[in-house]
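note to self — DONT lose this again. spent like an hour looking for the file last time. sequence + predicted structure for the chain T wanted, 224 res
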Amino acid sequence: MINSHAHLDFDNMIDVAENAIAIIPSIGKQNWIDVQMYPYFAFGIHPWMVQDHSQQELDYLEYLVKCNNPVAIGECGLDYLKDIDKKIQLYFFNFQLSLAEKYKLPVIIHSVKATEDVIFLLKMHPKISGEIHGFSGSEDQAKQLTSMGFYLGFGLQILNKKSTKIRQIVKNCPLEFMLIETDDHQNPNDLQLVAQEIALLKQIPIDTITTQCDNNAISLFNLK
């Protein structure tokens, strides 16, 4: 199974099973080197980290993208739940969207309480593809994003029976636009639990879920 978003370089993380594949996003300059230890990695600046970065580091981010082989730009995006200047977040996000467009790479997007602005900016970059990881928007936003060709990432939150909104979105989201992930959960091998829950919610065999989600990740990230 392919884990579309797992921070394996974080402290105390358990490694993935031998037959598993994971996309390892970076969050900023502090782990641009570390993520390169993994076969499939992404370069980006997380919205939580933008105030710790300068224009010079954005330029260096482009240098890294140009000189290495990331599978994506990210983790980048917007988080309006945090008390972080929105203008700075928007500038950093838009810069990284431009990088994705320039280097023909997908984006891995973090979006919290900001999905309308994310959709607006993505419409300004119509050539970009990508994943909204840990999707937390509305049903209507999910439909808008998938109609634009974006994939939605779902993780262990869907196991919570109280997360009725997101579980309903999982039921209704076309499988062709779904990815599975564990994000910063300590055991990335619990990805199996996510796949099992999607299978239950959709009333589809788990093998169908894992095969389609794997194919989605292979297509989006151009995995060999």
